[in-house]
Amino acid sequence: MTQALAGRIALVTGASRGIGAAVAKRFAAAGAHVVLTARTVGGLEEVDDEILQATGDRATLLPLDLANLDQIDHIGPSLHQRFGRLDVVVGNAAAIGPLSPVGHITAKDWDRIMAVNLTANFRLMRTLDPVLRLSDAGRAIFVTCGVTASVHPYWGAYAASKAGLETLVRAYAGEVTKTKLRVNLLDPGIVATKLRAAGFPLEDAAKLRQPEDVAAGFLDLASSDSDRNGELVRLA
């Protein structure tokens, strides 16, 4: 594999499994030093071990529940202190919550879905913007999905959170057009993940694309050669 991210510093959220783990391993194989965050310490350590075995280098691990929003504010200053900049961020972590009629969604479930899928990404943008601007080619990628294009009953909270994220990311992208920072949305499509299984429990995951199959799409947007900005990239 070409070292498209050689010497780059890349942060990936939701990196303990699924798409986040696959992207982290792909970035590391492409030469990046990856900073991984997720709630599950054991999962992060497993991904780190795989990266070490494949590349000879360890990742930096930040065990964190993104629903604890105030903790996110420390990430930017910590990265600046350690690395002096950030080159890539992938906002991948998401919560689906219970799928139910809007009138049956509890306030607790609504708050967590919005916190993880929308507000946490806002807090990431705010804390990481200064260190991304210190890169010679900062790249921010936020994961969305097709639920915003064709909203189905019972998916109201999740769809609303992703629609809000898409609007926020497009606004942010418009604000950085005169900088070296580029900000985009990525829809990986239908992929066999734990979140997908929660929404479609009767689906045969073995027949779906696997997380490793979509990691290359993230690599393209993370590259310093990519000048795309404010786009929603859908992986077929």
Folded structure, characterized:
The protein contains eight helices and seven strands, in the order E-H-E-H-E-H-H-E-H-E-H-E-H-H-E. It is an alpha/beta fold and 236 residues long. Strand 1 (9-13), helix 1 (18-29) and strand 2 (33-38) form a beta-alpha-beta unit. Helix 1 (18-29) packs parallel to helix 2 (41-55) and helix 1 packs across helix 8 (211-222). The longest helix is centred in the middle third of the chain and has 27 residues, at 107-133.
Q: Main traits of this protein?
A:
236 residues; alpha/beta; Rossmann fold; 8 helices; 44% helix; 14% strand
CATH class call: Alpha Beta
Uncertain runs: none
Helix content: 40-55%
- Sheet of most strands: 7 strands, parallel
Distance between the termini: 22 Å
* Major sheet strand order: 3-2-1-4-5-6-7
- Mean pLDDT metric: 95
CATH homologous superfamily assignment? NAD(P)-binding Rossmann-like Domain
CATH topology: Rossmann fold
Beta-strand residue fraction: 5-15%
Order of helices and strands: EHEHEHHEHEHEHHE
Give the name of the CATH architecture: 3-Layer(aba) Sandwich
Q: Which structural class is indicated by helix and strand composition?
A: alpha/beta
- Can you tell me the number of structural domains? 1
> What radius of gyration results from the CA coordinates?
17 Å
What oligomerization state is this entry in? single chain
How would you sum up the global shape? Answer: globular
Query: How many β-strand stretches?
Result: 7
Number of helices: 8
